[in-house]
Design brief:
The chain has about 250 residues and is mostly helical. It has ten helices and no strands. The chain starts with a helix and ends with a helix. It is a multi-pass membrane protein. Belongs to the binding-protein-dependent transport system permease family.
Amino acid sequence: MLGVPVLIALAGPLLAGSVQSAAAPLQPPGADFPLGTDVLGRDVLALALSGGASIVALTGASLLLSYLVGVPLALLVANRWADGVLVRVLDFLLALPGLLVLMVLAAAGWRGAVTLALAIALLQLPAVVRLVRSAALAPGCRAAVEAMTMQGEPWWRIHLGYVGRCALGPVLVDAGTRLSLVLYLLASANFLGLGLAPSASDWAVLVERNKEALFLQPLAVLVPAGLLVSLCTGINLLLDHALARRDEV
């Protein structure tokens, strides 16, 4: 389930034909267009082949950035004087509705793929830090940290090494579930005009653009939506398998 959307995202743009309007809108599947056309008269097959690269890149960049910043930050401040200050700041950020933040950015003229990735990463940061902080403050983890401290272990080995390994399992599980939320925010942001253009061939944009024509040309919605669902499900199954193998070891 993961291999198909990832393969399409990587190799699809090389195989896709033109994604410009070439026929009447919402045509059913036929010889010229195997999956029909969308609301703009574009070939749905070509759109599906070319629309995965942007959504995979933006989702991966947003998730990776939020964890690259959130995990070390949570590990470094856990049980320290800055812990309380960080929690208060995160509580404020966590209370901000994600869609409202994206709407404000769109109204202020902050657009583009880079802005979109940074904004979504910032919105995910409070939850990531709280998750890792909870793992770092678990009773079993605290006892081990106290023992390692009494043995004279350096702080980086304790917090970034041992505590980081303890938090790896929750982080992997959270990443799989958070992927769906990031995809939802990306689709919503593209609909609001923050990020990719409404005419882009991105899978999330295609679902939003063609949703009103679901019963007239269902493939224009079901194909990109199915690829997104397959991507989310495949990543979650892969992470579950990796965690099971890790527990066996």
